[in-house]
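The freezer alarm interrupted the setup, so I double-checked each line after restarting. Inputs confirmed:
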Amino acid sequence: MSKSHVMALFSDFDQASAAIRDLKSANLEGFKLDDVTLKSPIEHPEIEELLGKRPVYVRIFTFFGALFVPLLGFLFVASSQATFLLQPKGGKAVIPLPPNFVLTYEFFILGGVYMTALGFFICAKLPMKRNKLYNAHVSADQIGILIKAEDAIMPAIKDLFTKHKPLEIMWGEN
Amino acid sequence: MVNTYEETEVAVEKKFVKKEHDINADIEWAKINKDILRSLERPRAIFWVIFVASFALFMVGVSCEVYQYQTGLGVANLDNPHVWGLYVATFIWWIGMGHSGTLLSALLHIMHADWRKPIYRYSEAMTTFTLLTAAMFVLVHLGRIWQFYYVVAYPNERWTWPNFQSPLVWDATAIGTYLTSSLIFLYIGMIPDLAICRDNAIGFRKKIYLFLSLGWMGTDRQWANFRVTYLTLACFLMPLAVSVHSIVSTDFAASQQPGYHITSFPPYFVAGAIYSGLAVIITLFIVLRYTFRFEEYMTIPILEKLAKLTFAAAMVWTYLNLIEYASTWYGNDMYAKQALIYRATGNFAPFWWMMNFLGSVLPFALAFKKVRTNIPVMLVLSILLNFGMWLERWMIISPTLAHGIYPWTWDHDQWPSFVQWGIVAGSFGWFNMLFMLYCKIFPSISMYEVKEMLYERRSFKTKKVAEEVSNPELAVEGGLAS
Amino acid sequence: MSITNLLNNWSFYRQKRPFRGQYDLNKQYSEYKWAMALDLDICTGCNACTTACYAENNLPVVGKERYQHGYAMHWIRIERYWDENMGEFPESGTSFLPMMCQQCEEAPCETVCPVGATNHTNDGLNSQNYHRCIGSRYCSVNCPYKVRYFNFWNYPSTAWPSPLQDQLNPDLTVRTKGVMEKCTFCVQRLNEAKSRARTEYRLVKDGEVVPACVQACPTNAITFGNIVDPKSKVAKMWKNQQVDLYKDEQEKDSSMRGYRILEDLRPFPSVMYMERVRDMEA
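Predicted 3D structure, all chains:
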């Protein structure tokens, strides 16, 4: 069975969420919540109540970045101090701890920030190619619902959308 | 008595929705896009005036630097032992200014103070460009600028490394971290807006935005990741900003020079940084508001909030400043005390008193609502406050070097030459040029966050009205029982 | 490799200096520690040391105007002070003091250099590596004695017009603009003497090598030598004056004249001064 995509544009979030609620209660065969994507101009955390929690793995990256980069940073600083041929300076120990902690702290932030950013790009799958079913209005003021479903239930979904008076319905290859 | 829905709405608004006043919640979202994207198209003529003047100023700085590069640092009129001057002072000033961009953006984001939303983008950009300007001063200040890369820890066959004990290396690390992190923060926060630009641009600019927006579509998965990332980054950026200026202050606090060797320097520097940063945010607020016709988004109530924040920062700074004097005085360290007395009575005294006046007394003007809401007055005031903060940095650097521990080397007659002044002026040109260019190329107000702000306010209002209507008893009594 | 190195030598890398036994003839660490004793009672303030230093160390003569402006490059300078309590004739209270880099054991300048251009050598000198210096001038800011001199101008192009360049000392460099320089205890002489001694399987003898200022002093006010060797003159003088290199506060007899300048800042200088005795009633 081949699958295809449909996207409906709504003028506000309440309409869109009502449509999703109806879709859920319609119990269509082969319909999965995971195949529903909401495209919105702003963040709508409320949608998680309807679509279920989308897992976010960014913080795992953050954790490892903030853990290992400072460790490596400290080792890097200390070992370069130990291999510096002109070692003793100002009567301080060759590997003085207070300055190295300052630098380790900076490495901690560095690792945290860089790995978080990297995690974001990986988890949000950026950079990505834009779908064909994308409308520039989504970035302005409209809400889009994109659904991937089997062709058999496609007419039912379209009917359902039409009931909620969408501004536009687009379908086809994604 | 029957309450209609509309009456209830008005009553609720009066009662709860005080936030309403800083921005009109009924702006059409499409209009937001249009208004802000207009700033990328055709600003007022003053934009070009500022841009050209900045470029000219920058060229003055460049020619002074070329002269200094060719001849040696003697042309800056620095001498032994007065080896640091305006370069270091202005370096601290610029780097400090950046901190407020982060404060406004990250701290207020964590604390859900949503009035930051229309103004945080340009503040963050300000952070990035002030850091670039400050980094420039590090180079200008060096005797052998062509070998600045010795400070970078790169492996080499001679087994030489930078001296990790030196506060200057901490500086380099901290500034490097701060610059790249705030760039990442700025960029990630801008991706949804770049997508808006992409959807509206044409021609070669479309290609640029297409590339920069990374195919952002605003799907719920993207937004969920975005929310977590942005919050995490904000959590890292806050302590980073504090640590950066603390580290800059250790350049002084960790040295033995009387007048530098002061324990309270790290918080003092951070407070001063936030203070001058808020002042410059106000200046830029007024400039951008006029230049790009942002009157609807950068509203007077937001300016007022900024002014209040500035006042608070000014008072923190004043407190720490007085603490510094008091601890020096009661610490009874001979060298530190005489350095303090010299600052107040020597030939830098006029500037020292002026700095104290501008930094501690003048902000009291912000206690008056008439001042806070008057745009021309605020423009002048914010510039004056920043001038005071610049003087503060100079008054830390110069008088103490003129009057150190060792009496034979007291050197009271030092005055910066035109080369130093020229390069300091050039740095303003450099900053303004970059900043103005940024505001022309990228949206300087965050469109999606302004929409979020409006959305939250509208749904808050709807919720309250609904509560009110469903609870007619209370409504009859005229709003919720307080 | 580095981690093994770190773990094996951790206690060595965590060792603070100066520690007793750091300089020792049995060579735990180094058998040389160069030090100086300067008797202000003998010093006449004749400036011969300064002149000798200019000749030995290729110091540029900057001229009157630049001197007044604070560009003088005198690695050793004679400082004059007038006692304000002397009433009508402050000159009669004149005192003076030759000042050069104190080669501190815990040198404030060393820790702050971003590129590690100034370091502590094994024989207790505070070295300055001109090639590494990028001219951040932080060392000068942190030096309590302000004995570091920065090349604000490109002196090699102006200070020695032809044929004066022929009298430059070939044993050390001529410094260009943008680097910091300072007294080295004439390290070029010390290194030469140490190499010579090593080829003969012995230590440098006392008096075998002296810096230019010591050599030029007409009254022998400056004594220089290896303080590790208990028989050397300088070690005896330090001992007689009860000044201990490793202490930041001396427990000496009040009749002793020896002192180190700004000892309370804990730089542990290697130069001991001996107070001038003044007959105030005469």
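Quick read of the result. Chain C has a mean pLDDT of 89.
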